[in-house]
Amino acid sequence: MKKIILLIILLSTQNITFANTQEGEQDHEHEHATPFTPEEEERYFEDMGRGFKRKSFPRTNWNECSDRRVTGNYLSYRCTRQRNISQILFTFMKKNFETCVDKAAKSNNWRMKDFHIIHKGIFGDARHSPRSLHSPGRAIDIAEIIVSTYGGNKKMNFRKYGNGEFFTAFRKCWGRAIISQNNCPAYRGQVQLTGSIGKEDRNHQKHLHVSVPYCVKGKHAGNYFWR
Ligand SMILES: [Zn+2]
Fold it and tell me: What are the residue boundaries of the structural domains of the chain, listed by start?
């Protein structure tokens, strides 16, 4: 009897180890998904041509310079009127960014007038990292959020303030927006980790990865499709 119990314990431990290894590998894959630079992005979409308008990969243009809801620019570049972005991420940003930046501002007792995002890319190369949410343009890497308040402009650099109240409040708000869609599960049971990757990951010290996982208006897939 003792032997059987021991065997069961041994088997269940192995299962746990296996599950952890898989998760580790999936995380690993996220870490190596680097979005295009503006030049790479341009070349990629030129190569793709019209084929990219496929229904399974709906894409649109973000006018970073003068969109009514969200403005931004790629770090160290001027804003463009034609940033490639997935339809779903764009819709989600327009719907939730303002609310979430406002919540973040309130966590610092600021009254927000407007905001602007400095990012490090959206689309990534599907040939190199097909499992990353950058491949279908469903993720954006945010380096800084500039909040214009009644007390002047506040530059919230993620590298500097990533662990602070501001980004924590932003991530919780974004996570709640994701969970409210299609019964999306909270990543590891935590709202803050849902739809974003930040300082808790060693490869996300300089930017906040913000995504719309596949569970939103789609299928509930494996862990690596969650962020
Ligand atoms: Zn990312």
Answer: 32-225
